[in-house]
Design a protein that fits this description.
There is one protein chain. With 191 residues, the chain is mostly helical. 73% of the residues lie in helices and 0% in strands. The longest helix is centred in the C-terminal third of the chain and has 32 residues.
Length: 191
């Protein structure tokens, strides 16, 4: 019995995200981190936050759609951005010691982390403007969107650095055979 298209999409969406990230960074380990950030924190955390908001106001069922779209998209995007920058900074370090990993993480979070934070604040502020409309549908989209963005940013600037500290230089494990190792002078768009 064939599965309905909606069920097929629900099954294939995380796998598609995994495959797309694998092509961008060329590593299996960073893709698992990105997917974990998107599924565990990006969407589930935003659902929990919107559930809390329902104690104070009405929320339309359409908030689920925007949480899923923005939660997964931004969490994967922000995590990919930070992990890619972390790998570049690791390649610039003299050795693979814990102190070099910490230095790479400090530089990563002071550059890419700050960018993610300000990007998230701007997107959240834009979506918050939907909450001033009297229609429950638009308010719900605003609440859902802000929740998705806030949770994705918090995951990217708090949870992801903690994971990167634990992994350190082991983030380079699982390199795909057709991809070249990261080097400080080489960027993804150069080839």
């Amino acid at each position: 019995v064939p599965l309905p298209p909606r069920k097929l999409f629900q099954i294939s969406a995380p796998l598609d995200a995994f495959a797309a990230n694998s092509q961008v960074t060329g590593r299996i380990n960073p893709k698992l981190i990105d997917l974990l950030a998107a599924l565990a924190t990006g969407t589930v955390g935003a659902f929990a936050l919107v559930r809390l908001i329902t104690e104070f106001t009405d929320i339309s069922v359409f908030a689920i759609n925007i949480i899923t779209l923005l939660g997964m998209g931004l969490a994967i995007d922000y995590a990919l951005f930070i992990v890619s920058r972390f790998r570049e900074e690791l390649a610039r370090q003299p050795d693979a010691s814990r102190s070099s990993s910490n230095a790479a993480l400090m530089t990563t979070m002071s550059t890419a982390g700050r960018t993610v934070l300000f990007s998230g604040l701007i997107v959240a502020a834009s979506l918050a403007s939907l909450t001033i409309f009297p229609q429950v549908f638009l308010k719900s989209m605003g609440f859902g969107g802000v929740a998705a963005v806030v949770v994705a940013v918090l995951a990217a600037v708090i949870v992801l650095p903690a994971i990167l500290v634990l992994l350190g230089s082991r983030i380079e494990m699982g390199r795909m055979p057709w991809r070249a190792p990261a080097s400080p002078g080489r960027h993804r768009l150069d080839h």
